[in-house]
Fold:
Amino acid sequence: MRALTVVPTSSGSAALVDVPEPPETEGEVLVATHAIGLCGTDHEILDGKYGQAPEGQERLILGHESIGRVREAPPESGFAAGDWVVGIVRRPDPVPCSSCRVGEWDMCKNGRYTEHGIRGLHGFGAERYRSFARYLVKVEPELGELGVLLEPTSVVAKAWEHVRRTGERAHWAPKRVLVVGAGPIGILAALLGVQQGLEVHVLDRTESGPKPALVRALGASYHADGIAALGRDWDIIFECTGAPALFFDVVRAAAADGIVCLTGVSSGGRTMSVDPGALNREFVLENLVVLGSVNANRRHYEAAAKALARAERAWLAGLVTRRVPLDQWESAFTHQPEDVKTILTFTT
Ligand code: BGC
Structure:
């Protein structure tokens, strides 16, 4: 069967290759991949900056955002042929740490977790894969292919859960949310904010392409005039770009008792001078919280599935701006100005 693979840390090594069928030891459920979604992490892996092959192997099968259909499953698995499913990305560490032990692998403490298509485990970017039922999430048939948005939505559902739990440290009545970055994570964070009845604003650099209309169709406001123009009274801020220069700007834009959630991964190497005392003062005198959030556990996938089921189907379809057949995978990785989410399709 065909699989999109890469030699991690070797830029330019991506190739569509023939790989053996997945062994039964990888799980009782056989899934035919329908599509994988591409994100910044995949680009980093392709550029040789991130990623790790399974132990003893040279190549890593890509793909952590996925949607597929069950081919074979034993009745006791809870799955049946034809079900639309998404594979959970992270697996608990082998120790396991106290978080992984209770199924909160997204909070792994020793860093020995593995991630499909990213770190030590093959991804879902093969024509077929196998999984244990406990690491699969069912998607409503009406959602079908759009279930490919479940993984990024799970990441956002986790971030929202942690923001809410942080807010509940005291009386909390948030009203205004600023989302910085209108990529898929930013737009999905806005969707979940609107679903909670909050006033949501999204800031991005671009004024063209589909992003402004997607945001406005949600009932959220779209801005492209820079963070300084947006004031400093945001109850919640999601930073979804990872752009290093924005870090201090988002911290400064938070209201007293505000919560800043960082979801974008920055590349290091950029330096600027800061006044740690002034920063400390701001955090303390304003009860400010800055939290980082990564990955998701099963609870978040389930919350994400509910959020997608509540969203308008046509709006969700608008997020998938390019569907590229597997054999043209190279073009999928060439960024186009209108891109929001590009998916690689394995079946027509
Ligand atoms: C994935 C997460 C993963 C993170 C770090 C993201 O692109 O969506 O599931 O934990 O990368 O590897």
Summary: The first strand starts at residue 2 and ends at 6. Residues 150-167 form the longest helix (18 residues). Residues 2-139+319-345 form a domain with the Quinone Oxidoreductase; Chain A, domain 1 fold (CATH 3.90.180.10). The two ends are 16 Å apart (CA to CA).
